[in-house]
């Protein structure tokens, strides 16, 4: 455990018709998900009706697996607050996690900033795992046409490939290549993932527990293995998306780094689809894992399993129209003003 008592808000995202509700149906039918509250957007096709047991409040229903299901009316922060206060008053079962299904046209990034920006909510809930559902029958064409598709994939910790029963082998392979080209660190899941217990489906994201070097390497993804080299998403000419690693040989001054990162995300957030990494901090016993999506940077996590870690600091970026060189120059310039540059590559 992270020692964090707040409820995770996991997100199921994916383009229109990709199979988000199908995923939710499959997992929420399982008893293991009984202590889950589900929020669905009222504009989405909910399609959970066959699971409904009864209405327990105006917009809340109890599924026969024991899950609570609410539609979002109005703002997400309001819906989350209401769900939390109903739980506190004992009006609904004491759920332990929230799963939010976004509409097919939503960007997942603002969800994290909604939670971080709400002074009440952020004491009770925390961002959890983002799972993007990708339809293999049309992934490549949708990727070219719809920028939101790539944003959903870039924000994901895990990508569930749907409709593999309908897609050809070539379509499935092209989907894998496109997804990996955009987000090399995301774990690709097949239909077998639907039988995973909730702790295994929703156990990635900013609060993940990394216990070994191998897990750290997996989390950082293949871009981490290619020093400073960019990988370009297929069709990068259109989507303009690339992922790359930025390395720092020397320990990092955390205060200076944190100021730089918030400035970078503040200025270029909409072009930084994702940043994550591990930092060796001056004077600290453990490295820090950092994680950001667009304008939001999550509180860093001390990786306590890595006592006396001597590895290099490494950041992985997924950007749109923002190159490795621009980001490296920005860090170098900023850090040079306040400290010795940390051996940046
Ligand atoms: N054959 C097949 N059909 C699927 C699969 N996943 C989803 N579908 C079908 O695709 C259609 C859309 O699936 P939904 O789960 O409603 O998709 P969604 O992402 O929730 O859709 P929106 O909420 O409208 O964005 C439905 O008819 C599903 O039955 C799959 O893996 N195989």
Automatic annotation (TrEMBL):
Alphabetical list of CDD domains matching this protein: CobW-like (cd03112)
Pfam family name, one: CobW_C
Bilayer-crossing regions: none
Molecular-function GO terms, alphabetical: hydrolase activity; nucleotide binding
Gene Ontology annotations for the cellular component aspect, listed alphabetically: cytoplasm
InterPro entries per the UniProt record, alphabetical: CobW-likC_sf, CobW-like_C, CobW/HypB/UreG_nucleotide-bd, P-loop_NTPase, Zinc-reg_GTPase_activator
Alphabetically ordered keywords of this record: Chaperone, Hydrolase, Nucleotide-binding
Residue intervals of the CobW C-terminal domain: 241-335
Catalytic activity: GTP + H2O = GDP + phosphate + H(+)
Family classification: Belongs to the SIMIBI class G3E GTPase family. ZNG1 subfamily.
Function comment: Zinc chaperone that directly transfers zinc cofactor to target proteins, thereby activating them. Zinc is transferred from the CXCC motif in the GTPase domain to the zinc binding site in target proteins in a process requiring GTP hydrolysis.
Protein name: GTPase, G3E family
């Amino acid at each position: 455990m992270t020692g964090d008592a707040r409820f995770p808000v996991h997100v199921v995202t994916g383009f229109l018709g990709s199979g988000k509700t199908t995923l939710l149906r499959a997992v929420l039918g399982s008893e293991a998900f009984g202590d889950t509250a589900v929020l669905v957007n009222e504009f989405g096709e909910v399609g959970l009706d066959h699971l409904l047991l009864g209405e327990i409040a105006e917009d809340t229903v109890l599924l026969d697996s024991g899950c609570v299901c609410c539609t979002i009316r109005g703002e997400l922060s309001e819906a989350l607050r209401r769900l939390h206060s109903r739980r506190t008053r004992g009006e609904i079962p004491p759920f332990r996690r929230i799963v939010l299904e976004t509409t097919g046209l939503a960007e997942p990034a603002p969800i994290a900033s909604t939670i971080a920006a709400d002074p009440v909510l952020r004491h009770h809930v925390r961002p959890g795992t983002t799972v993007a559902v990708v339809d293999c029958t049309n992934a490549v064409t949708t990727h070219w046409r719809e920028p939101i598709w790539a944003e959903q994939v870039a924000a994901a910790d895990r990508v569930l490939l749907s409709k593999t029963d309908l897609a050809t082998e070539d379509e499935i392979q092209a989907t894998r290549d496109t997804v990996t080209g955009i987000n090399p660190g995301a774990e690709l899941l097949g239909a077998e993932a639907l039988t995973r217990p909730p702790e295994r489906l929703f156990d990635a994201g900013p609060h993940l527990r990394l216990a070994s070097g191998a897990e750290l390497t997996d989390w950082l993804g293949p871009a981490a293995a290619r020093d400073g080299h960019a990988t370009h998403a297929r069709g990068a000419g259109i989507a303009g998306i690339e992922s790359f690693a930025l390395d720092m040989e020397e320990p990092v001054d955390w205060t200076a780094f944190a100021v730089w990162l918030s400035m970078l995300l503040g200025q270029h957030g909409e072009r930084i689809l994702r940043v994550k990494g591990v930092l060796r901090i001056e004077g600290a016993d453990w490295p820090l894992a950092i994680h950001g999506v667009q304008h939001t940077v999550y509180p860093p996590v001390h990786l306590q399993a890595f006592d006396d870690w001597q590895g290099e600091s490494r950041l992985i970026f997924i950007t749109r129209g923002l190159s490795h060189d621009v980001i490296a120059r920005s860090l170098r310039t900023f850090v040079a003003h306040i400290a010795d540059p940390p051996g940046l590559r």
